[in-house]
Specification:
Helix content is 44%, strand content 21%. The chain is α+β, with helices and mostly antiparallel strands and 525 residues long.
């Protein structure tokens, strides 16, 4: 009986381990395919239009070029890119299209050469049977590494040209694999020839993120079963993968990992290969660091349980993990299981409590500084790609030390909570947010907001706090609580850091205080 139970437990362990190995690979594959689908959808709507086709047949015509430019420029800013490259088959001229040029100024900057390796993207796409081809390479104009989507345009089967957009390599690679702890997981993206294009183990290497890197998969690994599985997979590729295929999980006999999963990436001829070591689970932080630890405790229990326990525990646990993934992406669906009256419910509520403490200020209930810095950085990255405006408001409760001295610290806490709610109540758009920066200071982050919009918000926030009518007899500017605000607005570029906006807003706040408080002052970049 003991031997039978041990064998059953081993089967459960293998099943859970292979399930998770497959889950990681499919997750990464789906993330990349989502980017490709978005790029493909936007490009197909624009570049297959009559205006673009008309221009590609006559790229000397400035009127046709203007209409085509209007269509193609719609793509810019909607992807993790801020430019397009267009190759014209009839003349082999290469154009660059971005927001820095008016349509009338678009002129070819190069002639495509079949013997130039830098132009292989164009000729490979023209010769391909599919509508688009992927590759990783350097943007020779911007000198940045990109994941390229090269889209072939044809009319009646005759190729007219190629439009290429370069997705930001560091963003794509980071989004696919940055959540992996490299001691437990390693992720690779390989092309149809078995060349490694993205490697999670190198994400901390600046040279890797900005310069060309190519490595054959079969020269990096020696496990016989893995190499045979990859070779078989590559040999079966016939064009792009059309639908979700079950990943192949290989149990490894050598190396630091126990399993490797081969997962096709839909709508491409690329493949995700994910290495997984279940014995290192305690060091993983796929969703939330604390969640990973709690997750492992339940998995350990499931290892020792029978099939019934697997069904009762692991299936709800999987739902919980998926809800945490959505929560990480700022989805409002909530955490699975918080309404359950069992161990899963206790775990879900514990995670909810930990998540709340990690992102929200305990005193005021609004976002805390940790959330501010994390979200600020991602907001800057998105705006840098689209060239959007960002406004930041730094707010300080006027003479708050005197308020505490007069009314006591307990009442001071009540004041801060009330002011915090008044400030968040003045923020209307979903992507705007207010966070407590520290003490009596608050920060409002307003993506895609120019000077005029920022001034309107600042006026509203000043008025919201005044309308609270919280008595403040020790204030030198009013008989009620007021705030001073510093506003900084700029067009985000990739060389800026979020700290620059904080520093600029802080300078404007200082000006507000110097000019009498209970007001806002503005500084742009």
């Amino acid at each position: 009986m003991v031997i039978v139970m041990a064998a059953a437990d081993n089967r459960i362990i293998r099943r859970i381990s292979t399930d998770y190995a497959g889950h990681y690979a499919v997750s990464s594959a789906d993330a990349l395919s989502a980017h490709i689908v978005k790029a493909f959808g936007l490009m197909s709507q624009s570049v297959r239009s009559a205006a673009v086709v008309d221009w590609l047949t006559d790229d000397d015509n400035d009127v046709k070029k203007r209409f085509a430019y209007e269509k193609m420029s719609d793509i810019i800013g909607k992807l993790y890119s801020n430019n397009l490259y267009v190759g014209v088959e009839k003349t082999l001229r290469e154009y660059r299209i971005d927001n820095d040029y008016a349509a009338g100024n678009i002129r070819p900057f190069a002639v495509l050469d079949r013997n130039d390796p830098d132009d292989a993207w164009y000729f490979k796409c023209i010769a391909s049977e599919g509508e688009y081809v992927l590759n990783v390479g350097i943007d020779q104009v911007l000198q940045k590494k990109r994941v390229w989507v090269n889209y072939r345009i044809a009319q009646n089967g005759i190729p007219l040209g190629v439009v290429a957009t370069g997705l930001e390599f560091s963003h794509i690679a980071g989004e696919l694999f940055a959540q992996y702890d490299n001691k437990a997981l390693r992720g690779l993206i390989i092309d149809e020839n078995g060349i490694v294009n993205i490697d999670s183990a190198l994400l901390d290497d600046e040279d890797y993120l900005y310069f060309d890197y190519k490595a054959p998969f079969n020269e990096m690994f020696s496990d016989t079963a893995l190499l045979a599985a990859v070779e078989s997979h590559l040999g079966g590729i016939k064009g792009n993968f059309a639908g979700p295929d079950n990943p192949v999980v290989v149990e490894l006999s050598t190396g630091p990992y126990r399993y490797a999963t081969i997962a096709p990436i839909r709508y491409t001829n690329w493949t995700a290969v994910i290495f997984y070591d279940p014995s290192s689970s305690l060091s993983m932080s796929l969703f939330l660091p604390t969640t990973a630890i709690l997750l492992v405790l339940l998995i350990t229990f499931a290892f020792a349980a029978n099939a019934t326990s697997y069904r009762l525990i692991f299936i709800p646990l999987e739902k919980l993990v998926r809800s945490l993934a959505r929560l990480k992406d700022d989805n409002d669906e909530g955490i699975y299981g918080i309404e359950r009256d069992d161990e899963i419910g206790n775990l879900s509520n514990t995670i909810l409590d930990l998540f709340t403490k990690a992102n929200y200020d305990a005193l005021t209930g609004i976002y805390n500084r940790r959330y501010l810095e994390k979200s600020f950085q991602s907001t800057m990255e998105l705006l840098a790609r689209s060239g959007g405006f960002l406004s930041v408001l730094m707010m300080d409760v006027d003479f708050f030390k005197k308020y505490n001295d007069t009314y006591g610290h307990e009442q001071g806490d009540v004041c801060l909570r009330t002011v915090a709610q008044a400030l968040t109540g003045g923020i209307m758009r979903a992507n705007d947010f207010v966070a407590r920066y520290g003490g009596e200071e608050f920060i409002a982050v307003l993506p895609n907001t120019d000077e005029a919009g920022a001034r309107m918000v600042a006026e509203k926030l000043l008025e919201n706090v005044r309308n609270l009518n919280i008595p403040h007899t020790s204030s030198a500017v009013a008989q009620h609580v007021t705030v001073s605000i510093g506003v900084a607005t700029g067009k985000v570029v990739h060389t800026q850091g979020w700290e620059e906006y904080i520093k600029r807003a802080d300078g404007a706040l200082y000006m507000s205080k110097q000019n009498g408080r209970n007001r806002y002052m503005f500084l742009d970049f």
